[in-house]
User: What shape does this take?
Amino acid sequence: MSIFVDDDTRVVVQGITGGEGKFHAEQMIDYGTNVVAGAVPGKGGQEVAGVPVYDTVDEAVETEDANASVIFVPPAFAADAVFEALDTDIDLAVAITEGIPTQDMAKVNKRLSEVDTRLLGPNCPGIITPGESKLGILPGNIFSEGNVGLVSRSGTLTYQVVDNLTERGIGQTTAIGIGGDPIIGTSFIDALEAFEADEETDAVVMCGEIGGEDEEQAAAYIGEHMDTPVAGFIAGRTAPPGKRMGHAGAIVSGSGTGTAESKIDALNAAGVPVGDTPDEVADHIEDFL
Amino acid sequence: MKLHEHQAKEIFADAGIPVPESRLATSVEGVLDAVGEIGYPAAIKAQVHVGGRGKAGGIKIATDEAEAEQYAEDILGMDLKGYTVEKVLVESGVDFVDELYVGVTMDRGKGQPVLMVSTEGGVDIETVAAETPDAIVREHVDPAFGLHPYQARKAVYDAGVDDDVALDVASILSTLYDLYEDSDASEIEVNPVMITSDRDVVAADAVMNIDEDALFRQPELAELEEEAYEDDLERKAGEYGFDYVRLSGNVGIIGNGAGLVMTTLDLVDYYGGEPANFLDIGGGAKAERVTQALDMVFSDPNVDSVVFNIFGGITRGDEVAKGINEALSGYDELPKPVVVRLAGTNAEEGMEILNTDLLQVEKTLEAAVQRAVKNASEVSQ
Assistant: This one.
């Protein structure tokens, strides 16, 4: 078992003719993902990475029976690409693109409330169910099959924690990067809810960072609704207020909201141990299993 | 991207929002000329990208020429929270009887823009939000539809703004929302909106920040950008295109990916050191980027030791190692000790070819950070 993606996931790559799109389409195919088509306006009829390219996502989905999309489209056109994916009613759209204007994402967010499609991202590394399917830019070879779910706002921090788990021989059911932007599709809570319902997932790692209140809300959800044990990590304890730490969403506002302390306190209050180091997170997970 | 008050007020004025008469000045003579045209009382306001200018002495009201000269001398060239004041806005003093707060920003939790109105204007709004949250009325806007004009009126009436000026304030708020949308603002704030004794409504201050990710489609606003750095290192980082934040410690940090770099900072702190900076070199770690990143940390006089943590991911560790070695080819010895840790794809191959004549190498993040902290404490003793 796994969440959101598996062997049956059939993927369209939007922007497959671009450098990033082509490279990662090939990487996904190498990993074993069923990439069935590409979609790029004006490039219909071509073949890239061994799959046919269509002018519209709709045509790609209809012709190749796809149920998911990965979006490698430059920021100026990315919101439009997400709308195009959402309007085909596929199950999952994964937006890798970094730098989409926030007001565009607010409009996307509104549309999300009207459709059944799940959006992951934007500005995220994607999702992987080890041994089955990878949608995005995660390095497949560091993951291994197992019984721990992982959800994180950050890409490389995810890899770091996976590394700490792998050293102890602990594998993953599914690992998800939800993205570091202020407005995103799938939230911590959405992922936690799915892990809670997944019978194969025996423990969950949640990696948050400063900014916003998503981690606090996730903590409340865990306290009320989860039986599966969760271990946490929060990046940005030493971040000064008012400074954006790389991610657009990673900023402690002047009024003190979004601090690491408030997130760690909320998680602890929900019974979630928070590691001081990524290795300590792996300690907690080992204790759970 | 932050606009200066004078830039935002020009945009406000063009959109029909009443603002006080003003002139921009960069010298004491310029200030005196400006006041000569505007008259007294006149506000002399530092144009720098920091909040709380008034409290920090960056805003003064002059009632005669001697005061104007004195204040101009005081403020021009002063250091305001790390920024040097190079220009001031000279503005006609407003005879006000009441102050309001109005603003438009993104409620990231809801993913919707939100209008904010409070009759507690003229004070730090974050304090108001923390102490009396009910004193701020919030009205969320459907981003796909845009603002219904009634929403601006509703917010203003709900906030308890005086009836005789309520529609004027609502009109300002509605215009601010249009500006927010049209200019891809992340935040627009007027604190205070002043109500004069004649019951006119004037935007006495203006904060307007633009979403940097939207500057590609806001070329006119992008031209207004005035890079203001707290120091030369942040300026250099801007030129190199790094995500960089300077901190006060002595352990320099280079890494890839915001979350992992933040984590490295936290670990330096956790193991008893003090981080000197946040520096994200992004994916890849090609020789040129490594060279630039090393240049950044080596040119920070506070840095006594460096930790360089790269998680290879898609970029293979041996390629990263080649980039690092190439960057080091210009050095006979390094000015400060550097601990490198590579992880991820082909990390072991990468570690094997790293130039260990110049570098210290550690296998885990924890070990690398601890060693860098130790190096720093030895150097600084």
Observations:
- Chain A touches chain B through 65 residues (CB under 8 Å).
- Residues 19-31 of chain A form the longest helix (13 residues).
